[in-house]
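Ticket reopened. Same input as before:
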Amino acid sequence: METQEKEVKGSVQSAENPGLTAPADWQPVIIGILCNWCSYAGSDLTGTSRIQYPPNIRIIRVPCSSRVDPWFIIKSLQATADGVLISGCHPGDCHYIAGNYYARRRFLVIKNLLNFVGYHENRVQFSWVSAAEGAKFAQVVAKVTDDIKKLGPLHRYKKENF
Amino acid sequence: MARVGVFVCFCGANIADFVDVPAVVEEVKKIREVKYAVYYKYMCSDPGQQIIKDAIAQYRLTSVVVAACSPRMHEKTFRRAVSEAGLNPYLLEIANIREHSSWVHQKNKKAATEKAGDLIRMAVAKSIANEQLHEISVPVTKRALVIGGGIAGIQAALDIADAHIPVVLVERSPSIGGRMAQLDETFPTLDCSQCILTPKMVDVASHPYIELIPYSEVIGLEGYVGNYKAKIKKKASYVNFSLCTGCGACTQKCPVKVPNEFNMGIDKRKAIYTPFPQAVPNKPVIDAEHCNMLLKGKCGICSKVCEKGAIDYTMKDEVIEREIGAVVVATGYDLWDPKPYEEYGVGRFKDVITSLEFERMVSASGPTGGLPIRPSDGKVPKTVVFIKCIGSRDEAKGIEYCSKICCMYTAKHAILLHHKVHDSRAYVFYMDVRAAGKGYEEFVKRAQVETGTTYLRGRVSKIYKMGDKLMVRGEDAQLGQVVEIEADMVVLATAIIPYKTNPALARLLGISYDKYGYLSEAHPKLRPVETAKAGIFLAGCTQAPKDIPDTVAQASACAAKVCGIFSGDALKKDPMISVVNPDYCSGCQNCVQVCPYQAITTEEIPITRGSKETRTVAKINEGVCQGCGSCAAVCRSMAISLKGFTDSQIINEIVSI
Amino acid sequence: MNYTKQIQDIASKLFTEGKIDIFIGYQQNSFDDNQVPVLITDPAEIPKLVFSDKSVFNLTNYLKFEHTKNKRVGLVVKGCDSRSLNLLLTEKQVKRENLYVIGVCCEGVTDDNGAKAKNCEVCVMPDPVVYDEILGNPSGKKPYRVDPDVAEVAKMPLVERADYFEEIFQNCIRCNACRHSCPLCYCSKCCIDQETSTLYNGSNTVSSAVHALLTWSMHLAGRCVDCRNCEKACPSHLPLHLLHKQNEKVIFENFQEHLSGMIADDRGAFYKYNQKDPDDFIM
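Engineering reply: fixed in the latest deploy. New output:
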């Protein structure tokens, strides 16, 4: 895939706006919103274990995936982010009993809605990463980064004035 | 205008080797709100903390960002430092540039440096929206509720009461004592169970700080740590305990005979009964399901023989309430019913019995006077086969887990059999001998050597009858042979399981339970006695199978936890919880619906100041809220915000990159 | 479908018996053959009331305003309107004892051109689910169908779809008429209007429109009853139902939820969960 991108005038096309391109060495910005008890702890473990992953993700800590209001995702996509990753505890492991079950329903709906109005489905991704899954966190970030790199920069609805 | 100070840590070489820290500091200085930025080798060290404290005073900082390791590591350290400099500790934010940058991007210093800069920018933006927060103080009712009067409940109650904290001990049966009261002797020392237990039972009854409520069940619990209100149903005993002297005339004269649960149905008790001679309280109760007077209105003998007039057939169940601050759950275990083991003749052969039936037989106060006898003909068995792992470690018929105590009590039974019947011979079929514990391996050795018990590794395939003997056919896996033993009696080491009522109790208490029905601890290793709900603790086999020493240790641990809660007049709580802005609340109560802790209720407030008309708005109970933020995310009018993770804080982070 | 006479009779009976303070119904427009809502406090105005297949608006919207709050109100509801009323009751916005509800078994209303309205084509419940008195003959629940417009848009390739929606969002003038006309947008202080909130800056940019409309449709996901008051109110004639019907489709297909407002005390899909909910979209 990467070789293909280079063929297109040495630049990266945006999946939603094929006319718009970025330089070949373009790096996406990904916002990661992680729950404190599982995924944030898991990402700490990735660090402690010195497992390497792509440096594009910027992590925000929230207490629980149920704290994630869908408009955080919309806002992120309108800010600098080219992609968003939301991660929480595995179903059944929620520190707050059932927060991730409620969150999961909202995530499915907002993911489909964003895709419906013209965002590529891979712009917003979700994962369950436990505090023990440092390696999984690195894999998830690598996959999301790779996916977003293929999609190219996100141009639509970038907020004009912050 | 915010004045932010940024303190970037080298963490020795941990950060500095992979992130160009001085360059990051220069970059950060360009942020408008940053009035001071500096780096240091170890920010968490005393001189490092001093740098922060001095800068707060010198630059009149309104918030502080420390860029170092994970907030899960040193957030508390730096909060304390900030607080010592006179700044509210919650005006601190951590940028995690070690776990999230230097350690994971070791091959790309440029990107790691850039990312560290972004992470600091995000923390600075968030800190600008930080508010001063203050620890919440919740008053506590210094009284504990212990559910279950077995050895776990007894130990917890005594330990708490010895610290001069009132305890309410609720037991569902007429007497405390639990399973341990049914045991004859205890491994690995073979001291008599009754001899070590009954003094504790008497202590409970006479302790000035313990209110013993027997023959009762907890039917409701509301509130939160330090402020629970328990509803306790006192089942009708039909005996006025304050009049009863426990003389026993009624139990002697009662004409109705019922299988005796305490003796595993080996003998009979009366419809009015005390479960066992050393019962505490030693007062009889009437079993309403079998009493002729209560069922048919005929009889009344107990009432006639009672000199004190303590019998009251009109007694009703009564619900009482107690205000308490903490709960210890110690509901114990039940025995797994070995019925699925049809090939062992369970239910068909009378001489195939369970281990607790054997235990009652060899008990000096038991139904057979301390001698094992064959239920079929009353003869004393000479050859006894013990089979372990009946139900345990058996995914097909029973449960997956190891019941933990069977290896040891089977060794004990082999020894006890030898003590009671000197010319007997015991065989033990086992899968593994799990004798981990102080003196346990020696104890098993003792059974094998001293009593000559034959341990056979393998499963029994079939038991059939030949004359009055039981033929036990099994495999000796070590010899690779099929063996057949002519036995007089077979004892099945049945698995232990939680009580069927555990899930209902868990729901009532608001705690969780696993797929077997054992109540779940908050963390399997580091918080083994706490539950996910603050102020509720677990002791004994209600949490997982365990032996008496472990149970007692856990019960004492519960007591220590309870005493910890009650050590001050108020509980201190993390202030990062939700708060409602009543002006914006539309009263839809979606938050009430999603709150996992039932922390949200509603209140009526005037529509406008001084108005008589009211409207309903959400109200958050500070004592209960754990700060998950579910409510904040479902609040459409954004009336709820989660302190420490407000919408503004998170949005500031998002837009700052 | 003409219940003008019956509704006038019931309204006048309610006023005579002193059961209500206000009656909410429809009246004929003076300049065309469409109808507009009318709030009647004086029984003398009862002859104004009409009801026909031109009675398109969802009158439960008027229960959120100050002059109907805590008053005894009589009103007319069709199937979809009664579902939003059910939600308002569940969400404690109105008191049942304050209402006298005339439920009409709806045979479908017409749009401005006299054709059957598009939401009536995919209606799942023409009969009222909450009422004190029912007019017409119930025809029963209809099977759920995916909105044909949603299906059509979903078929477009991504870039085309993105362009399609960008045009829609560009035409939004941020007048908030959609919110104002929605019976379920009753918040005393909408998130859009909160000065302290960083959610919206109030500027009329396409990104703020996207943000507002998507957040709004998420707030209505699992609740929207497809009355299309918002679309009728929109001065730019945006196909707002696309967003709501898309969410409804996802919720119906994944959570097997009966549609919003169909039963009492049901808050919608986001306020409950099933452990077996779809999980395969999560890594």
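The radius of gyration of chain C is 19 Å. The first strand of chain C starts at residue 22 and ends at 28. Please confirm and we'll close it.
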